[in-house]
Amino acid sequence: LQMPAFAEDSRFATNSKRVENREQVIQILQDKLKSETRKHWETVCGEAGLPVCSVNDLKEVFEEPQVQYNKILQTVEHPEIGTVRLPAAPIKVNHCRPEIRTAPPTLGEST
What we know:
Elements: H1 4-8, H2 15-20, H3 22-34, H4 38-47, H5 58-63, H6 65-69, E1 73-78, E2 82-87
Antiparallel strand pairs: 1-2
C-alpha cells in the first residue's frame, strides 16, 4: 500500500497492538483505499500475489456481461413501481431457467 510509516508505527507493530488500535487501523486503511479506484487496488494487490476481487453492488451485478449472457436477470412489471429487475432462479430445468411470472407482493399484500 506504499505506507512505510504505518509499518513503523509502534501502535501497529504486533497483531495484539493492531487489535488494540483497531479503530485507527480501520480509519487509516479506509482513507488510503479511498484515495484510488477499486480497479487500481485490484491491480496492485494482484501484482503483489494477493488473492483479490471486487464485490459488486446490485447495479454492477446486473451489468456484468456474464450475468447478461447467462440471462440471470429477468424483468417483471410491478403494479406500483413499474418495471422491476430481479435475479432469476439459480437453476435450469431441461436447459431452461424457470421464468418469474409475477412481481413481488407489495407490503402487506400477502398477509
